[in-house]
Amino acid sequence: MIDHLGITARNFAASRLFYERALAPLGMNVVMALGKEETGGYEGAGFGAHGKPCFWVQSVPNGQVSGVHVAFAAADRAAVDAFYRAGLAAGGRDNGAPGLRPHYHPNYYGAFVLDPDGNNIEAVCHQPE
């Protein structure tokens, strides 16, 4: 079972702002932030709900990032749509507009946005309309 997951960002400030805006429609916000003085070299922001960070974005001193795919659960299709709009408005790039993806299963409704570092970020709802 996964407790939390983290990605690195070339531009921490830009990525933090992107995720603050893109994840808000999914009910997630920054619930913990760490500065360089606490970590010994990087900045981090933990996103989640109810005080529990489950998704971390952190700076990398050497500029090395690794591309990942992260899918966040959405309560309904409207939240998927709102995530997509918010992600694009926050500077993300389209990687798949909201819609059904029946090749996964009949009720798979998702949207994909590339974050400032090219990570493929998805919001998905598995519920029927």
UniProtKB/TrEMBL annotation:
Q: Name one Pfam family in it.
A: Glyoxalase
List the SUPFAM superfamilies hit by this protein, alphabetically: Glyoxalase/Bleomycin resistance protein/Dihydroxybiphenyl dioxygenase
| Domain named VOC: residues | 1-126
Entry superkingdom: Bacteria
Gene3D superfamilies, alphabetized: 2,3-Dihydroxybiphenyl 1,2-Dioxygenase, domain 1 (3.10.180.10)
User: Mind telling me what this protein is named?
Assistant: Catechol 2,3-dioxygenase-like lactoylglutathione lyase family enzyme
In which organism is this protein found? Rhodopseudomonas julia
